[in-house]
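INFO  loader      accepted 1 record
INFO  loader      residues=296
INFO  predictor   begin
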Amino acid sequence: TGLFNRISNIGRSIRDLRRYFKLNDNYSKIICVDAIITVLLFMIFSIRKKLFAWEHMSFFDPVTTTKFKIIKKIVYKRLQGVIVLTKYDYELLTNEKFRVFLIPNFVTTQEINLCDISDKHVVFIGRYDYQKGFDYLGDIIKITSKNNDIKYSVLATGNDDVIRRNFLEFLRENKIESRVNLIAPTNNIQEVYLKKTILIMTSRFEGLPLVLLEAMSYGIPCISFDCLTGPADIIDDNQNGYLIKNFDVFKFSDKLIKLINDKCLLEKFSLNAKAKINSTFKIDQVRVLWKTLLDS
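INFO  predictor   done
INFO  writer      dumping tokens
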């Protein structure tokens, strides 16, 4: 039913767009955030000179099939341009002679600093999904459990009951469930970050992860695997957090223990985290990039 619903939604979108294009021609640019619809727009409508593709994951993500990546390359080279989130995608697509615009996500800057360097409280936010690496998260909690004063809060959403069940069973089998506070989903994200010390991310792949931007906007240092793509655009290793070689849970745990036990280092990373957000990911800076594209 998931595939059927996807096809139905795409069909409705194409129908609505066909109707719109018949009635309107007063547009200079079309920016499409869905790769399949972008390809169909290119094939069905004569708008390729006005059409931009906007990639919300990496162009090279491991989920997209090889065949569809080839189709995307053929189509995208004939569009007005491709908008990407990360330097990795920008450099690779530029080298392949695409017309590329690098426009990252933005985050609202926060005046307050919520990092609590004395509480040794780690937070993880993500949906129950293979991509998010709950198996790695469980390993890290187990390895760091020898440090009796480290606490974890996990805010997890999603409907993958297998991932959820396996994660909770792992905690029970290793007698570490008492270390983990499972947080219910909430619209008050500031409350989630309140009095947390470090955010960790164990993803296998990403686009440009908003959770890192959000945490760092509150002055919370982050530790993440150096997965493709996004963490390396946000975290400056050993300056405002740590980037860990994929998928070394022992090195990850070592860095987590080192940072959470060093208040001076935590304070430095916290200040640098907010500075990175303010220098690169503020809405005013991203707005300028969009204006440049729209005026081109």
